[in-house]
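From the shared-data thread, chain only:
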Amino acid sequence: MMEFVVYILYSESLGKYYVGQTNNIQKRLITHNRGGKKYTSKGRPWILIKTYPCTD
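Structure, as tokens:
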């Protein structure tokens, strides 16, 4: 069984939320805040609001 989290980020500069999923939340948050994703590179810094653990 693979474990992953659904996460919600918030950008104060854009006033928007972003929802994603990953199996490594720390690595994913760093990627978003370094500008590694096209959409989220515009809203840095992203703040982690909530995570929801899930299994498939």
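The chain has one helix and three strands.
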